[in-house]
Fold this protein.
Amino acid sequence: MSELVWFLVPLGALLWMAGGTWHKAYRRWAYPLGLCISLLLAGAPGWPMLWVFFVTVLATHLGYGDDSSWFERWVAGAVYGISVIPFGVQWSVLLMVSFVGLLWASRRWNAFPHKLVEFLHGSLHAFVVVWGVTRP
């Protein structure tokens, strides 16, 4: 598999941020579709990519915005973490905790901008998926 797949990490961050700035479809559809199709074309196995696609689409459609309770944010974070379970439970836990922790930090401190949260959500998720399919 080519090293070029690592360019999907900043692309993940960009699409998550675009989903928060312009239209949620960038985050909900373009990100998982672009990530999974790109990795399939690069030679990634099919079943993990289908899992990542469908569970990521589900996670990004769940409510975790300003009108959502912390319970709803934890549920969204858990599904977000479950999306990478084919690559290891430790990555699922990391993504779940980081998802909720970053949301909490952006609401706790005004100096922690929500755009940074979106950037980190997209890049962390893309990193785990790319690492998962490229590891030896």
About this structure: The two ends are 11 Å apart (CA to CA). The CA atoms of residues 13 and 119 lie 4 Å apart.
